[in-house]
């Protein structure tokens, strides 16, 4: 059975016995030579909590949250888009403010197609917000049984999830749950506190007879030493685990009027597999002092209803990329990508922010 055939069998509308429930992703990682690992920075204390993994409870800490992990997958797809290899619809807006020009796509906007940077932008030559245009209203009227406008404007929203919290159509607010969930867990973490200091190489801040020019404080310019101080705690971990799950039940809720349901779902499933293989190939540098090294290959496991085990799915990156390209061609999405501009609503906001930054600097 080919990769595409397996996806079709699991994503069809007809209920069959022991059909696949989804695909699980795993890769084991570890910090280089036992280095401390820095988790995300929050105001709250480190969140170390128990979690069951393969029937055994471990203390874990999230090194990459579900939301952050999704952003990293989208970054890899954005690379593909910029290299003109992506091939699926998405929306962009360009905001020109003086000498500056900013381009934002739905692969990087926080709320994807429903983000204010997209909704409030305008079609070139129009003074109407995109959300009030014909296509914008069509998107706001989408429903779980007719998601075609979203598929044709920003397809990946249907995989990573989207919510139109600012508009309500006859079927209520457009809400599409994420079908792909990934995260990175640090196993058996122990909190470690360290002390750091910085020494000014010329010791200007410590020379008593050195006077700064009027209005210039050495410390404010970073010219003085920083005394020893406690850093935010890091953790010592035994290993880390990249885990993810592509839910077939979630994908099966997606329905379309202008496309074959199964073909569109298979395309989105292959988009997930493609994003995962790209992400794993990028490596694991999550933030400063949080680099991880793979100790095993990525596992792609098919989970089947009625079975506690999982079947390994060999899927090389080139095979996934080929199947994804074939699915794009067979689904033949009507590409209604929009290329917007900031316009009268957003451009002045950016201009004022830039002016404020230049005066404060």
Topology overview:
Elements: H1 3-11, E1 20-30, E2 48-53, E3 56-64, H2 66-82, E4 92-97, E5 100-105, H3 116-119, H4 134-140, H5 148-153, H6 157-160, E6 162-163, E7 175-176, E8 180-187, E9 190-192, E10 195-198, E11 226-230, E12 234-236, E13 239-247, H7 248-252, H8 261-282, E14 284-287, E15 290-294, E16 299-304, E17 310-312, H9 317-331, E18 339-341, H10 343-360
Parallel strand pairs: 4-18
Antiparallel strand pairs: 1-13, 1-15, 1-16, 2-3, 3-8, 4-5, 6-7, 8-13, 9-12, 10-11, 14-15, 16-17
Can you walk through the features of this model?
This protein is an alpha+beta fold. It folds into 2 domains: 3-191 and 237-355, no CATH class; 195-230, no CATH class. The chain is 30% helix and 26% strand. The chain contains 10 helices and 18 strands. α2 crosses α8.
**What amount of the residues lies in strands?**
25-35%
User: Radius of gyration from the CA trace?
Assistant: 24 Å
Q: How many DSSP-defined strands?
A: 18
Please work out how many helical segments DSSP would assign.
10
Number of domains: 2
Give a short account of the largest sheet: 9 strands, antiparallel
Order of helices and strands: HEEEHEEHHHHEEEEEEEEHHEEEEHEH
What spatial form do the alpha-carbon principal axes imply?
flat
Ends: how far apart? 62 Å
Helix content: 25-40%
Helix and strand composition category: alpha+beta
């Amino acid at each position: 059975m080919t990769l595409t055939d397996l996806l079709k069998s699991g994503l069809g509308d007809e209920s069959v016995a022991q059909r696949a429930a989804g695909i699980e992703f795993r890769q084991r990682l570890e910090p280089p030579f036992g280095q401390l690992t820095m988790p995300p920075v929050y105001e709250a204390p480190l969140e170390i909590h128990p979690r069951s993994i393969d029937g055994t409870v471990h203390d874990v800490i999230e090194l990459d949250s579900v939301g952050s992990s999704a952003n990293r997958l989208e970054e890899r797809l954005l690379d593909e888009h910029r290299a003109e290899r992506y091939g699926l619809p998405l929306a962009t807006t360009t905001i020109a403010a003086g000498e500056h020009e900013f381009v934002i796509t739905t692969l990087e906007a926080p709320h994807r197609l429903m983000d204010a940077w997209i909704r409030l932008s305008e079609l070139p030559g129009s003074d109407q917000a995109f959300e009030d245009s014909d296509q914008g209203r069509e998107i706001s009227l989408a429903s779980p049984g007719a998601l075609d406008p979203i598929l044709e404007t920003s397809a990946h929203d249907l995989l990573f999830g989207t919510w139109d919290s600012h508009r309500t159509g006859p079927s209520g607010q457009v809400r599409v749950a994420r079908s792909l969930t990934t995260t990175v867990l640090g196993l058996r973490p122990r909190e470690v506190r360290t002390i750091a200091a910085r020494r000014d190489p010329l010791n200007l801040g410590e020379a008593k007879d050195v006077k700064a020019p009027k209005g210039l404080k050495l410390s404010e310019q970073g010219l003085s030493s920083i005394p020893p101080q406690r850093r935010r705690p890091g953790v010592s971990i035994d290993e880390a685990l990249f885990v993810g799950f592509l839910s077939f039940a979630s994908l099966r809720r997606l329905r379309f009027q202008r496309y074959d349901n199964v073909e569109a779902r298979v395309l989105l499933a292959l988009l997930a597999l493609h994003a995962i293989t790209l992400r794993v190939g990028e490596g694991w540098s999550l933030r400063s002092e949080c680099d991880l090294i793979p100790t095993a290959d990525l596992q792609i496991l098919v989970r089947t209803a009625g079975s506690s085990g999982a079947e390994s799915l060999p899927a090389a990156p080139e095979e996934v990329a080929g199947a994804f390209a074939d699915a794009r061609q067979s689904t033949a999405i009507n590409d209604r990508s929009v290329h917007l501009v900031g316009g009268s609503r957003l451009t002045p906001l950016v201009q004022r922010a830039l002016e404020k930054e230049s005066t404060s600097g």
